[in-house]
Amino acid sequence: MTRKIVTKSCAGLRSCVSSFDDRPGHFVAPWTYDSVSRADAVQMLAQAIQGLGGDVQKVENAVSYGYVYATWTTWPGTDDVEFFLPDGDTTVLVRSAARQQGVPDWGRNERRLEQVRLELGWEPVPILRNRRRALFFVESPWDSFGPVPPTDPDYRYDVDLDSEQ
């Protein structure tokens, strides 16, 4: 049986943050949880989301990963939020994106993820980024962070992380 997992970069989406997208304005650090199993962390995550007003759509505890997909409906629309917990690690990879693009989110997606993280008491993972700054001392839109993700919005769907081969 093949499972499709969606957690990816922000691709061509503007109102989106992800642990998989290293570009300024789109990157959010993954989290780490301690002293609980991955299965317990998945359940804690689902409960925290519900407690903060999210609607948990999918919870998976597969052999090789944990996954939670939730939505938040607020003005101006619905946001899709994903959490991926790989097996053998205490890391949580995150992604939050507005369904309706073209409308600025004013940092809503990043703030929501931070609320969930703080509710759980989990820590962000310190990340060292390979960056070349265009302006010597400040982060700018012209900085280089490695390869740019594809601009096709469909890139965020149909990723097979647990296929049987």
Shape, please? globular
SSE succession: EEEHEEEEHEE
Instruction: Just give the CATH class of the domain at 15-127.
Output: Alpha Beta
Name of the CATH homologous superfamily of the domain at 15-127: Sirohaem synthase, central domain
Structural class: alpha+beta
- Portion in beta strands: 25-35%
CATH architecture of the domain at 15-127: 2-Layer Sandwich
Core attributes:
165 residues; alpha+beta; Double Stranded RNA Binding Domain; 7-stranded antiparallel β-sheet; two-stranded antiparallel sheet; 9 strands; globular
What report would you give on this structure?
By secondary structure, the chain is of the alpha+beta class. The protein has a domain at 15-127: 2-Layer Sandwich (Double Stranded RNA Binding Domain). The protein is 16% helix and 28% strand. The protein has two helices and nine strands, in the order βββαββββαββ. The chain has helices at residues 38-51, 108-120; strands spanning 4-5, 16-18, 31-32, 55-61, 65-74, 77-86, 91-98, 123-124, 159-160. The strands form two sheets. Strands 2, 3, 4, 5, 6, 7 and 8 form a seven-stranded antiparallel beta sheet that branches. Strand 4 and strand 5 (65-74) form a beta hairpin. The longest helix is centred in the first third of the chain and has 14 residues, at 38-51. The relative contact order is 0.28. Mean pLDDT is 80; it is low at 153-157.
